[in-house]
Design goal:
- With 383 residues, the chain is an alpha/beta fold.
- The chain is 35% helix and 19% strand.
- The protein folds into two domains: 6-283, Purple Acid Phosphatase, chain A, domain 2, CATH 3.60.21.10; 288-372, Serum Albumin, Chain A, Domain 1 (Orthogonal Bundle).
- The protein has a seven-stranded mixed β-sheet. Strands 3-2-1-13-14-15 form a six-stranded mixed β-sheet, with helices on one face.
Length: 383
């Protein structure tokens, strides 16, 4: 039993973009119009509201699971670091790792008028220097090869921040495996629990989304975790709220920048992890929740429009297309938000999808059926 209850806040895929390199003009609007539903127009307000919420709640620990910036812009990192520094100054430890958008990202641009222009990014050393106060000076074990580190955050709990992005995207190197197993072997002698964090996924959360999402040598990591008392893995990257209860359970928290703008809380008492999500309420933006939801729906509608133009649906009339669209948009929203899908009123659309020739979208609907009938926003792991 832990001496005291530990309250942990979690956020991921913030994708902060500095206003100093974004004037909100035509180039930015064109980029957003082709995007994945992130509410980038209000990302400053989202991040500031979240930081204020953290300081208000005063958790024992704040975890950030990568993709801190839009596309790795140095100025975005520097500005975000200043915001996080105020959280640390308030007595709240922050631990973070980079995501695939944070270091040496090739599409690192600023936006002015109708043009985009190259801006400076950061390398792995720059990243750890900028966020030196966020775990990189407060660790018990550190791996120079990968940038991964382990910190003791309670008498009976260690935090493992596994970095697969600093030097080799989505891959854990052989030399780092030696470090990982040696350290976990030492820690496990004390019968301490271990909470692991990665940006990419340890488990296959969806059979259609493995390449580029799941860590390439995840099975080997999972074997080591099982051997040395790692109890739970937290990840992000997919922008989807999803839980997979395996030998080593994994919770994927959805993006703070995407509707419904989740952050999460974990309560640890030595006997269990209790996980739950909340939606960020950005009061400075009128009707923010609706704006964010509409941004996400626009993205889904764009995908459908493209599908109906390229796939063979000659036998379907406009009414059937409308029914198919309705069920897809609602199921997609539930899948990303981790909410339970109520099929009432959508039965006809679901039947039409079942009758279609195999396509990406029909397969996608099949891949999410199990998930959308289960609440993905709460999870209790008994230790």
């Amino acid at each position: 039993m832990s001496e005291k209850t530990l309250n942990i806040m979690v956020a991921t895929d913030i994708h902060y973009l500095s206003k100093s390199i974004n004037d909100g003009g035509e180039a930015f609007a064109n980029m957003i119009a082709k995007g994945d539903g992130k509410v980038m127009k209000y990302i400053e307000e989202i991040v500031d509201t979240f930081c204020a919420e953290v300081k208000k709640r005063k958790p024992d620990v704040l975890l950030l699971l990568g993709d801190l910036t839009f596309n790795g812009e140095r100025i975005s990192h520097l500005e975000l670091a200043k915001k996080l520094e105020k959280i640390v100054e308030a007595g709240i430890p922050v631990y973070l790792i980079p995501g695939n958008h944070d270091i040496n990202y090739e599409n690192c641009f600023g936006f002015k008028g109708d043009e985009r222009y190259r801006v400076e990014s950061v390398d792995a050393n720059d990243f750890r220097e900028i966020y030196s106060f966020c775990g990189y000076k407060n660790y018990d074990y550190y791996d120079e090869i990968s940038g991964s580190y382990i910190s003791k955050i309670a008498d009976d709990l260690y935090l493992l921040m596994l970095d697969t992005n600093s030097y080799s995207s989505n891959y854990f190197k052989e030399e780092s495996f030696i470090w990982l197993e040696n350290v976990l072997k030492e820690i496990s002698k004390n019968n301490a629990n271990i909470l692991a964090v990665s940006h990419q996924n340890l488990l296959e959360q969806n059979f259609m989304f493995t390449e580029g999402f799941k860590i390439k040598n995840a099975e080997r990591i999972e074997e080591i975790y099982e051997k040395y008392n790692v109890k739970l893995n937290l990840s992000g990257h997919m922008h989807i709220q999803h839980i997979k209860n395996n030998i080593i359970p994994e919770i994927v928290t959805s993006s703070l920048a995407v509707s419904p703008n989740h952050f999460a809380s974990i309560v640890y008492d030595g006997e269990s992890f209790v996980y739950s999500t909340e939606c960020l309420n950005v009061e400075s933006i009128e009707n923010f929740a609706a704006i964010s939801r509409d941004e996400f729906k626009i993205m889904g509608s764009r995908q459908l429009s493209k599908l109906f133009k390229t796939a063979p649906y000659e036998n379907e009339d406009e009414a059937d297309i409308e029914k198919m669209s309705k069920v897809f948009l609602k199921m997609n929203e539930c899948y990303f938000s981790g909410e339970i899908f109520d099929p009432y009123g959508f039965e006809e659309g679901m039947k039409i999808w079942e009758e279609q020739h195999e396509s990406f979208t029909s397969l996608y609907i099949k891949s999410i059926l199990d998930s959308v009938f289960t609440d993905q926003n709460r999870f209790i792991l008994k230790l």
